[in-house]
Amino acid sequence: MSLVSELRNVGLNCISSHLSTHASCCCRYHKIHKEVYDWFDISFDEFGRTSIPQHTEVCQAIFKKLMENNWLSENRMQQLYCETCQRFLADRLVEGTCPTLDCNYDSARGDQCEKCGKLLNPTELKDPRCKVCQSTPQIRDTDHLFLELPLLKDKLEEYINNMSIAGCWSQNAIQATYAWLKEGLRSRCITRDLKWGVPVPHEKYKDKVFYVWFDAPIGYVSITACYTPEWEKWWKNPENVDLYQFMGKDNVPFHTVMFPSTLIGTGENWTLMKSISVTEYLNYEAGKFSKSKGVGVFGNDVKDTKIPAEVWRYYLLTNRPEVSDSLFTWVDLQAKLNTELLNNLGNFINRVLSFIAKAPGLGYGSSIPDAPGAESHYLTKALAEKVGAYLEQYIEAMEKVKLKQGLKIGMSISSEGNGYLQESQFWKLYKEDRASCSIVMRTSVGLVYLLSCLLEPFMPSFSLEVLKQLNLPPETRLSLCDENGDLERARKPWELLPAGHKMGTPEPLLTIDGNGKKQKSTKSGSEVQIKKSCKSEVSISRLDIRVGLIKKLRNIRMLTPFITEKSVVLCNLKPATMRGVNSSNGSCSDKNGTKVELLEPPHSASVGERVTFPGFEGKPDRVLNPKKKIWETLQSDLHTDAQLFAFYKDVPFTTSAGVCKVQSISNGVIS
């Protein structure tokens, strides 16, 4: 069973805004993410989210078990409260200076420092500030529930000590986990004073919700429960099920300490994580990827590059930061495409299949030749020994979840195939020694088939295309299991495909169009020029959003009555005629007849002042070019939150007098 994924998305909306509910927005972003994964050939048995009844049910059941077993405590804690926003602040809405010695990162979040990786409580930050209004929050006392990690320490350490050896834990996961243990486990608060989330089933705390890092990992369980009513056969069956998890390094403690402690505390026979593969950071060009600042190329951008999904998958996996941070650059992407995918892998496969497909007298008429005496053929025997060694290395790497190494080994087999072809001089053998040529060709086409199997986890659509050209169904892939003899067969590539098998039609693999120019033939293969393509220039600063004064209203029947004379106006949309009136701002209407409200600045905001977004600097476009869809690109990230404040992603619409908001529609979409 493949790992299920949980998706917690807060859909969010306004410039004369049509607002929908949180649930509908969550559905919207769930759909967007699913489309990105589909394009990347990433499949799920169940692609779910935690905003579902099953999640609430499973999460609350686990909580009740912890309560029954006395692993929870009640305590009064200090929490940051924003007087301006009139609410307790979620961890993600607090920023400040990291308190860790020698770190002092000035943009640490309320739950974790991005620079040093240390988990934090918001009150530990130096010089904390509210991300919404930038004011300094106050510390207030509030009662909460805590998971008593110190009491679970012995059971947790036994699990970690055993499983980190019995399973495959990457070195960075081991280091991060033991660093946490060395610091000393502390009671961890599992509730929050928020309006959204899973409600706490406890009379005293019924107005609170669970902390996201308590309930989010439980989503793995609850989404499996959506997939099958027999979910306990997977999650409460450690004798027969191995759980593998993959993540970035900043999420390690939540999965190696918090989540296992939660499950252990129930006293039930849970399937705990056996293997974990943790990556360091992938950086972009000269700096870091930043979704909020629009720096980098992201999942919803890559289709526009016209570079095939398998190229992206290959590059990202060869560049996977398994041991240390790695760097994405467009120059390196182009180099790897040309030298590794086209001139190594694509060149080998195309040479073999094209030659066999040639008409008799020039080739084999698409029929795989017989190859008697292959085992005693000098070059072929040497190749088989190398392939056998590589197969052992490949299996070991994949079993230990060293994906980058597994892919590298697969490509090494392709390189050996190219060398084998070149050294054999098969084009001469065809005329001078047809029997030897047949051995080389049958062995080489066996290697092509083997490569389609080895590379399938990394480039599934590429693998399917190779099998199609070989005229083989997908279910014929080797499993490389000793039990069925696949591994032994793979050591003799000339035996992988039967003599006389009719191939399909060979075609060029990995063709590029759009932003990548057409392939051009060279003596060594093919080359592609890739144009740099990312949406780093589409910044919210390109919108000219200002405080406007309402002087007159015409025929706006569905607009919620408002008490302010000011509104927020987008000033650099290309003027359009709406209901016979020349307009340069967003529409106030709603075809479905649902609620519509204006986005309102604070009362004391100055008419004409520009609405800003902290962290995003720059002059706006004079007029937005409708062909470039700047507004449409940015609009999908505009929303209101549960407290009615307006945001671009997690950055508020800000004026000199404070933050913009709406009257009554929370968690809505700005359109």
Automatic annotation (TrEMBL):
Q: Domain Methionyl/Leucyl tRNA synthetase spans what residues?
A: 23-353
Family that this chain belongs to: Belongs to the class-I aminoacyl-tRNA synthetase family.
Recorded source organism is Vitis vinifera (Grape)
Ranges where the Methionyl-tRNA synthetase anticodon-binding domain occurs: 379-510
What EC number(s) does the entry state?
Answer: 6.1.1.10
Reaction(s) catalysed by this chain's protein: tRNA(Met) + L-methionine + ATP = L-methionyl-tRNA(Met) + AMP + diphosphate
Example GO CC term: the record gives: cytoplasm
Gene from which the chain derives: Os06g0508700_1
What superkingdom heads the lineage?
Eukaryota
Kind of enzyme, top EC level? Answer: ligase
Residue ranges for the region (Disordered) are: 507-528
Which InterPro entries did the record assign?
Anticodon_Met (IPR041872), Met-tRNA_ligase_1 (IPR023458), Met-tRNA_synth (IPR014758), Methionyl/Leucyl_tRNA_Synth (IPR015413), MetRS_core (IPR033911), MetRS_Zn (IPR029038), NA-bd_OB-fold (IPR012340), Rossmann-like_a/b/a_fold (IPR014729)
Q: Which GO terms describe its molecular function?
A: ATP binding; methionine-tRNA ligase activity
Instruction: Output the PANTHER family linked to this UniProt entry.
Output: METHIONINE--TRNA LIGASE (PTHR45765), METHIONINE--TRNA LIGASE, CYTOPLASMIC (PTHR45765:SF1)
List locations, semicolon-separated.
Answer: Cytoplasm
Q: Which UniProt keywords apply?
A: Aminoacyl-tRNA synthetase, ATP-binding, Cytoplasm, Ligase, Nucleotide-binding, Protein biosynthesis
Primary location: cytoplasm
A biological-process GO annotation: methionyl-tRNA aminoacylation
Question: What is the name listed in the Swiss-Prot or TrEMBL entry for this protein?
Answer: methionine--tRNA ligase
